[in-house]
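Renewal narrative, Specific Aim 1. Our central claim is that a sequence can be written position by position from structural information alone. The example that follows is taken directly from our test logs and has not been curated for this report. It begins with the structure tokens describing the chain, in the order in which they were read.
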């Protein structure tokens, strides 16, 4: 091999196109060297396999192959070493089956190193005969490795460029490029799809053609100032398509250099659907699904904004108030008519008020609680708003043929610190305090019977006392610190004690608390459930104690709150389970209920009463005449006894109207087969009128006040002796 051979190879590849370069150089080297095979192969370091990119065999280009380089001389070459064997290469590498199959005797291989210095391509010549000067072949190969490697790097660069171009063209992100004059020089397919403009329509145009005209010049001036000073800008922006449709996009613009001139590359991501989804999520997160009003999260956010705004403004005369209110006796409405009816009441209330207070952040806070944010200058404005709310609810709510009067009680808290700047943390504390104070004012207004009240500091102490009493009552029930007294009920005809009413009593740390005070607390806090169970249990224990002393066949009336029915599980009748577990006959227990259970909608209560009646229990209707007062309802309920309310008895002996009413109730009850008990009898004259009217039973201080358990037997003994 000499200068002529080198010149011949150079001439053979000088005019080649890139796609023929590797094949041509392998053929030329094969011819000049007299090699049976010459190939270029790329090595995969991970799999230890070499794959030829050009393979000349016996002066022909053949199909490329892939082979395992382990246990072959190519392994040394792939590690960056020049490897040559003048003869006997098969014996040196007995596991290389290719050498055997090709009949190879001699081998020369040189590595080609990439820019990073890593060997990823090898150039190999295989000979079927011995070679005289392997070193000369190595040197000859080395003359071409640089040329081959440059061609490989060029191909890789072009491949990467093609891939990048494909990525840009096929990207879901819209991409466009502007020159230093901010004129569009390139836009990809995604851009044309997003904007509706073809490439021809935007080339040479300023991106202003996309403007939605929703931003003033200052916005764009600030944008370009940031691009030119910091080299980039990104943010959300609304633009317009060729068809005039607005869309929200995330736009990123980067300033770059191209051939010494500035250019601008912009990436656009259409986030319209994302923004619409965010808006929907925000709406649902900040609106009440039942009424459609804003909810407590929005109310708090808006309240904080107003507090912040007022804190920084100069007008010290503008103040802020939270007007909080809830529906009076809404729990009763739910209990009597059902939850669905209650929901419709809330929707009707929201609809009536929303029109008048749409601009005042009228929100549903929770359950039947609502709040309004109101700015004002004079307190009289707040009083006017409260009266306006009340006036809008004067007309009864009519739902499904049922007319229900709805009223609300309002509480107002005031923020009068305009001009006082404060931190965000303090703003949130003020917001929470204002809502809490307005709520406390509402609670106090309910207790005092006022239509509305402004918050004052004394209310805090009152509420704390209220909460403490609830906590103490809860603990008293848990610790069995509740007493049950028993008031005798006299059979007039036989002049005997026939029944007792079980009455709960609570001595709280040495002070007796009136049932009129703690029973509503128990109902409000749901302590009424365990309290009722405790009273029933102690009543059963009293029955067994009397039986042990020879007193049998007494009926004991046990009161049941309407709220206990809402928690009642007919599949597991806890009341009957208690009676059975104590060994008491169901006929000895009469469940005493108020008239509210007679509402026509309470068919579920009828099921409970029927279940109790079928088990043998009696049903007494307490305070008759103060509630729904319709004897026709009694035909639908298994009532055994009516108890005339004390308000009818107080003047029955002096008021002819009361006397006539009582007599008519007794007569009608007799027709229905229902016994009558007169409550609150204290005078002999009352007893005389009731006896003449045919009343069955008498209960009241005339015979006995409620007795502690230990006094029941002495009373029975004394009563029997007197008779």
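The sequence written for that structure reads:
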């Amino acid at each position: 091999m000499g200068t002529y051979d080198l010149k011949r190879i150079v001439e053979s590849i000088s005019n080649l196109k890139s796609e023929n370069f590797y094949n041509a150089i392998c053929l030329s080297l094969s011819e000049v060297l007299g090699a049976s095979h010459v190939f270029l192969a790329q090595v995969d370091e991970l799999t230890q396999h070499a794959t030829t990119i050009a393979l000349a065999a016996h002066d022909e280009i053949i199909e490329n192959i892939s082979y395992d380089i382990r246990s072959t001389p190519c392994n040394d070459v792939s590690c960056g070493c020049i490897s040559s064997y003048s003869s006997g290469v098969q014996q040196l590498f007995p596991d290389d089956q290719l050498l055997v199959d090709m009949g190879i005797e001699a081998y020369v291989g040189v590595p080609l190193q990439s820019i990073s210095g890593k060997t990823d391509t090898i150039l190999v010549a295989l000979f079927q005969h011995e070679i005289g000067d392997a070193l000369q072949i190595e040197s000859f190969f080395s003359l071409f490795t640089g040329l081959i490697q440059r061609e490989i790097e060029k191909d890789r660069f072009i491949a990467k460029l093609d891939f990048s171009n494909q990525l840009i063209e096929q990207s879901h992100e819209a991409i466009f490029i502007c020159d230093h004059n901010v004129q569009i020089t390139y836009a990809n397919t995604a851009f044309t799809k997003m904007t509706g403009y073809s490439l021809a329509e935007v080339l040479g145009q300023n991106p202003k053609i996309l403007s939605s005209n929703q931003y003033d010049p200052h916005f764009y001036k600030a944008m370009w100032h940031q691009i030119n000073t910091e080299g980039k800008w990104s943010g959300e922006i609304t633009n317009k398509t060729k068809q005039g449709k607005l869309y929200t996009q995330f736009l990123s613009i980067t300033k770059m250099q191209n051939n010494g001139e500035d250019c601008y590359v912009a990436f656009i991501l259409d986030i319209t659907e994302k923004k619409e989804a965010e808006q929907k999520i925000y709406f649902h997160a900040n609106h009440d699904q039942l009424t459609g009003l804003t909810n407590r999260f929005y109310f708090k956010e808006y309240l904080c904004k107003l507090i912040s705004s007022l804190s920084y403004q100069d007008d010290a005369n503008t103040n802020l108030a939270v007007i909080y209110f809830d529906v009076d006796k809404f729990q009763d409405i739910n209990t009597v008519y059902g939850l669905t009816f209650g929901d419709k009441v809330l929707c009707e209330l929201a609809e009536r008020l929303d029109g008048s207070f749409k601009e005042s952040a009228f929100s549903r806070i929770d359950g039947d609680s609502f709040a309004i944010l109101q700015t004002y200058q004079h307190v009289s404005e707040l009083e006017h708003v409260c009266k306006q709310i009340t006036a809008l609810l004067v007309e009864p709510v009519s739902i499904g043929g049922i007319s229900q009067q709805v009223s609300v009680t309002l509480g107002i808290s005031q923020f009068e610190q305009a001009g006082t700047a404060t931190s965000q943390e303090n703003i949130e504390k003020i917001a929470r305090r204002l809502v809490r104070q307005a709520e406390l004012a509402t609670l106090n207004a309910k207790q005092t019977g006022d239509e509305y009240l402004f918050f004052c500091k004394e209310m805090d102490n009152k509420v704390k006392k209220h909460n403490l009493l609830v906590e103490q009552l809860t603990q008293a029930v848990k610790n069995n610190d509740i007493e049950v007294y028993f008031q005798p009920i006299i059979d007039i005809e036989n002049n005997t004690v026939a029944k007792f009413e079980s009455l709960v009593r609570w001595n709280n740390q040495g002070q007796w608390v009136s049932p009129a005070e703690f029973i509503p607390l128990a109902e409000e806090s749901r302590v009424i459930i365990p309290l009722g169970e405790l009273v029933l249990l102690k009543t059963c224990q009293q029955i067994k104690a009397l039986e042990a002393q020879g007193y049998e066949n007494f009926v004991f009336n046990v009161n049941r709150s309407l709220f206990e029915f809402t928690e009642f599980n007919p599949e597991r009748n806890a009341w009957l389970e208690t009676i059975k577990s104590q060994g008491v006959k169901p006929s000895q227990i009469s469940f005493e209920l108020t008239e509210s259970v007679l509402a026509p909608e309470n068919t579920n209560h009828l099921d409970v009463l029927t279940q109790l009646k079928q088990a043998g229990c009696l049903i007494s209707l307490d305070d008759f005449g103060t509630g729904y007062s319709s004897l026709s309802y009694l035909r639908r309920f298994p009532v055994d006894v009516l108890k005339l309310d004390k308000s009818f008895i107080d003047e029955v002996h002096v008021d002819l109207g009361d006397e006539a009413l009582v007599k008519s109730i007794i007569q009608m009850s007799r027709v229905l087969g229902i016994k009558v008990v007169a409550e609150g009898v204290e005078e002999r004259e009352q007893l005389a009128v009731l006896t003449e009217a045919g009343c069955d039973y008498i209960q009241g201080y005339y015979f006995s006040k409620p007795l502690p358990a230990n006094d029941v037997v002495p009373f029975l003994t004394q009563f029997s002796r007197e008779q």
